[in-house]
Design brief:
This protein is mainly α. Helix content is 57%, strand content 10%. Keywords: Cell inner membrane, Cell membrane, Membrane, Transmembrane, Transmembrane helix.
């Protein structure tokens, strides 16, 4: 069965910034509409994605071990980690808030770590296994990335609610900073990964990038 020509066969490249198709037959270096640099594929996609992902994983450990907030109620205060905060909300009947924080703080980062690692390993091995499903997996990772800061928003709302009712005070702790860094670096990892590599040989793409840069 004949397949339609690919963009590369037609010497077309999609600008990563504005999305305009650009003719690469004359080897242009910049998009004629927005001036962004043109590349057949994202430069050093696998290397940068691994770097961001491992950095996020390193920050994920203190984000869960260090306290994220200190709650003072009626003169007595206690530091809470993410997991202890989930248990505390659950024990006090706020199971909906506990579930939101657990999903956004524990489940979502874990899913992103496993999914991106799977995509990176299979691309590096030039695997032809379940390419369509892996493409859908990447789109799912992008989708859940939009909700990564949901638990931080919930903590901020709970803090405002507690102080508004004069029941006590809630102060942020160092763990919330590490969790924010986890969110940032996992989003950067997802943005750095080029899903088109799922369908092609990454070694050929690296050689093509080197030839284009020359």
């Amino acid at each position: 069965m004949n397949s339609p020509p690919t963009a590369r066969e037609l010497n077309l490249c999609l600008c990563h910034t504005c999305g305009q198709p650009c003719d690469m037959s004359a080897a242009p270096t910049e998009c004629d509409r927005c001036g962004a640099a043109l590349h057949w594929r994202k430069e050093l996609s696998l290397t940068r994605t691994w770097a961001y992902l491992l950095t996020a994983l390193a920050f994920y450990v203190p984000a869960n071990l260090l306290p994220v907030m200190k709650t003072t109620m009626l003169g007595s205060g206690a530091d809470s980690t993410i997991m202890s905060g989930v248990l505390e909300f659950w024990q006090h009947g706020a199971w909906d808030i506990a579930l939101i924080i657990f999903i956004a703080s524990i489940a979502v980062p874990g899913i992103k770590f496993v999914s991106l690692a799977l995509l990176l390993i299979t691309v590096q091995r030039n695997s032809q296994w379940a390419r369509k499903e892996r493409s859908k997996l990447f789109r799912f990772v992008e989708l859940i990335g939009y909700w990564s800061m949901l638990d931080v928003i919930v903590v901020a709302l709970v803090a405002a609610l507690v102080q508004f009712r004069a029941l006590g005070t809630i102060e942020p702790r160092l763990g919330i900073l590490f969790f924010g860094l986890v969110v940032v670096f996992t989003m950067l990892a997802a943005m750095s990964f080029d899903p088109r590599l799922i369908w092609e040989n990454p070694h050929n793409e690296e050689r093509l990038d080197d030839a284009t840069q020359r």
